[in-house]
Automatic annotation (TrEMBL):
Catalyzes the formation of 4-diphosphocytidyl-2-C-methyl-D-erythritol from CTP and 2-C-methyl-D-erythritol 4-phosphate (MEP). The lineage of its organism: Bacteria, Bacillati, Actinomycetota, Actinomycetes, Kitasatosporales. It holds the Pfam family IspD. Belongs to the IspD/TarI cytidylyltransferase family. IspD subfamily. This is 2-C-methyl-D-erythritol 4-phosphate cytidylyltransferase. Its EC number is 2.7.7.60. InterPro entries: IspD (IPR001228), IspD/TarI (IPR034683), IspD/TarI_cytidylyltransf_bact (IPR050088), ISPD_synthase_CS (IPR018294), Nucleotide-diphossugar_trans (IPR029044). The keyword tRNA processing does not apply. Pathway: Isoprenoid biosynthesis; isopentenyl diphosphate biosynthesis via DXP pathway; isopentenyl diphosphate from 1-deoxy-D-xylulose 5-phosphate: step 2/6. It comes from Streptomyces yanii.
Amino acid sequence: MSDQSRPYRTAAVIPAAGRGVRLGPGAPKALRALSGTPMLIHAVRAMAASRSVSLVVVVAPADGAPEVKNLLDEHALPERTDYLVVPGGDTRQESVGLGLAALPEDISAVLVHDAARPLVPVDTVDAVIEAVRDGAPAVVPALPLADTVKEVEPGAPGDPEPVLGTPVRARLRAVQTPQGFDRDTLVRAHESVAVDGDGATDDAGMVEQLGAPVVVVPGHEEAFKVTRPLDLVLAEAVLARRRANDGF
Ligand SMILES: Nc1ccn([C@@H]2O[C@H](COP(=O)(O)OP(=O)(O)OP(=O)(O)O)[C@@H](O)[C@H]2O)c(=O)n1
Ligand SMILES: C[C@](O)(CO)[C@H](O)COP(=O)(O)O
């Protein structure tokens, strides 16, 4: 539940400390360029585009915080947007936890947004924030699936895997970011869910483990995660389409 005595300020925590192994060799994923601008800067701008976001906390690769701070100093953000840079951890869960620990006292609502989703439109960001402000402790943007999904018994890479079942597709959603939270709920989730192996794959799942309700709002196709090389091609195409639509 939100503390009504606190002023209502929203911050975005951007975990950007991953290596991007699935993208292939090169710089840490968040620092790779899309149309000449680092992916992280696109992601920060996507959060700052919302008038409700007054602080962005970037969680940088552990040894790259000064470089990331310089990068942010070089790229203009709206005057209303402050930013902080903190070093990240070994898993996404730890990186988000380190970002949360850096939040100032007066923040009531938190977005957690992957640096790897640089092109999320501002309308999606605002829809998540609005649902949190309307009282949902945890909100995720998500889309219906185009593929049928099978549950399998995982085997060695390349080996046939026995199918265990086929979940009803109409009940499934592919979850994106930014995920939005009442701050106290998210902090409680991070304090109570231990990092196990590679850690939790999303923050809303940790809130589910608390037993708190999580709701879905419509996601957006352009909020896809840049994970594999083909995603870079798609991201460049989306940016080219935006430039064409903006008349540049
Ligand atoms: N230790 C980690 C691992 C991931 N992330 C961030 O979490 C987001 C989602 O993770 P993912 O897309 O899986 O990025 P990587 O972990 O970099 O990718 P890969 O698994 O291919 O290495 C990314 O913005 C990534 O930078 C992070 O901050 N700290
Ligand atoms: C948080 C997330 O983007 C929601 O789909 C996703 O779970 C991140 O997964 P990753 O394997 O850490 O990229």
